[in-house]
Amino acid sequence: MVRKFLMKISLVAALFSLVAAPAYAVNLVGGGATFANPILDACKAEYARETGDNYVYNSLGSGAGRSGIDKGDFDFGWSDTPHLGATAPKTMIHLPVVAAPVAIIYNVPGIKGNASQITLSPNTIAKIFSRQITKWNDPAIKADNNRVISTPVFATERVRVMVDGKSTMQIVTRKDKNGNPIVSRYTKKRESVQFPNTEIVVVYRNDSSGTSGIFTNMLRAVAGSVWTKSGNNDFTASFPGNINDIKNLGKIQGAKGSELTTALVAKTPGAITYAEKDYANKVKLPVAKVLNNMDIAVQPGAAGVSAFLGSAKFNDNGTLTLDYATKNPGAYLLGSTSYALVLTNYPDKAKGAAVKKLMTYILDNCAKKFPETEFAVIDGALYDFNKKLIARIG
Predict the structure, then answer these.
(1) Checking DSSP bridges between strand 92-106 and strand 335-343, what pairing results, if any?
(2) What is the pLDDT of residues 285-332, one digit of tens each?
(3) How confident is the model at residue 240 (pLDDT cuts 50, 70, 90)?
(4) CA separation for the pair 305, 280 (Å, rounded)
(5) How confident is the model over 60-80, as pLDDT tens digits?
(6) Which of 57, 142, 323, 342 has the fewest CB atoms nearer than 10 Å to its CB?
(7) Contact at 8 Å (CB) between 217 and 321?
(8) Under a CB-based contact definition with an 8 Å cutoff, are residues 284 and 181 in contact?
(9) DSSP of 138-171, one letter per residue?
(10) pLDDT band at 219 (very low <50, low <70, confident <90, very high)
């Protein structure tokens, strides 16, 4: 039934694309992680304009991306966490061709003081999402914010790109020869924030979500004394306690997909969630800075993600082993790649060539063309790693 449902969605999306853009054929159908959707959606028209090809992407969650590539429903799947199960096709590899931050998104009316944005440590985040902290004026939250806070300011540069058939200048993070973002300075400011005595409402992804996997893996790695269970794409399986406890009734709520979790937070005073930053922008909600291992408060942005991924280890199957103990002062610890799931031996060789062409375009162009999505431009060693992986597609 799930396969038939996915195929119907793909067929409807493909037909719509044909109607909306009759000059192009729908060459590829993909689906999976909501994490990758903002950059894939932004880049779709540019890819069609520049290459004459097209693709449809079904933003259904990482679980759907994994099952879709397994069953052959998708030409390419997408998952925020590695797909290492027995059902994965033998010729499947991971491509970490996009990278972006998962943001802590909140809706707290009544915050007063000189901070335009709150700061949270991983330990405090873990206590909030495990329901050990239940009020916004908790001493731990106040301690994270009422202090001198250091924040990196990353150097930027202007690059010329083609968007909508026109030459335009975009501002991107400036990096050194190894692909590491350059910090121009650190700002230090004493914050004084008054938090309201408001109940915290935790909102989580209740579908199989790679975003949940990214989030809970970080909490387990950095705040293991609080987040005592292993990270999991199923938030409830990772929750360190009884999520159905009577005390959590109405104070911890699930929703499917990042679109719905952020929409729920937007209409719920006191609520907090985790999702890709682009979704916070869409509902006009603020995002928290996150303290890293060097006690530096880092914005959820492309630069902090690049700094964090700079110490990752590369694996033969295309996955990365993230270094949550990194001492890079610019690192944003909730940064991650999201993996395209592709085959090295497509039965249809023309389809394989089309997938290779698309993945090359995403890697080389999309983040540069649309920096407002906060997806990191991948370069340096990670770029070279991706190029070698893409060469294996066939």
Answers:
(1) antiparallel
(2) 999 999 999 999 999 999 999 999 999 999 999 999 999 999 999 999
(3) very high
(4) 17
(5) 999 999 999 999 999 999 999
(6) 142
(7) no
(8) no
(9) -HHHHHHHSSEEEEEEE-EEEEEEEETTEEEEEE
(10) very high
The two three-digit tokens of residue 378, written as one number: 């991948």
Give the C-alpha separation, 237 to 362, whole Å.
Answer: 33
Phi, psi of 17 (to 5 degrees): -65, -35
3-state secondary structure of 344: coil
User: Do the Cβ atoms of 126 and 104 come closer than 8 Å?
Assistant: no
| Cα atoms found within 13 Å of the Cα of residue 54, Cβ hemisphere only | 16
Instruction: Extract the tokens encoding 178.
Output: 């190894």
**Contact assessment for residue 101 and residue 276, using Cβ atoms and an 8 Å cutoff:** yes
Determine the 3-state secondary structure of 45 from DSSP.
helix
Half-sphere exposure of 215 (CA within 13 A, CB side): 29
Angle 383-93-91 from CA coordinates, rounded to 5°: 145
| Structure tokens that stand for 176 in this block | 């050194």
Kindly give the interhelix angle for 2-20 and 62-71, rounded to the nearest 10 degrees.
100
**Cα dihedral 383/101/81/238 (nearest 10):** 160
pLDDT (tens digit per residue) in 116-128? 799 999 999 999 9
Domain at 2-100+336-390: CATH code: 3.40.190.10
| Angle, CA of 86, 352 and 39, to the nearest 5° | 85
Domain ranges in the chain are: 2-100+336-390
Specify whether the CB–CB gap between 34 and 80 falls below 8 A: no
DSSP assignments along 21-39, one per residue: -TTS---EEEEE-STTHHH
Distance CA 278, CA 98 (A): 14
- Distance from the Cα of residue 85 to its chain's centroid: 22
Please provide the distance, in angstroms rounded to a whole number, between the alpha carbons at the two ends of the chain: 30
**Chain-centre distance of CA 106, in angstroms?**
17
Q: Which tokens sit at 64?
A: 């759907």
Helices first, then strands: H and E counts in the chain: 13, 19
In which residue are the tokens 């779709």 written?
A: 44
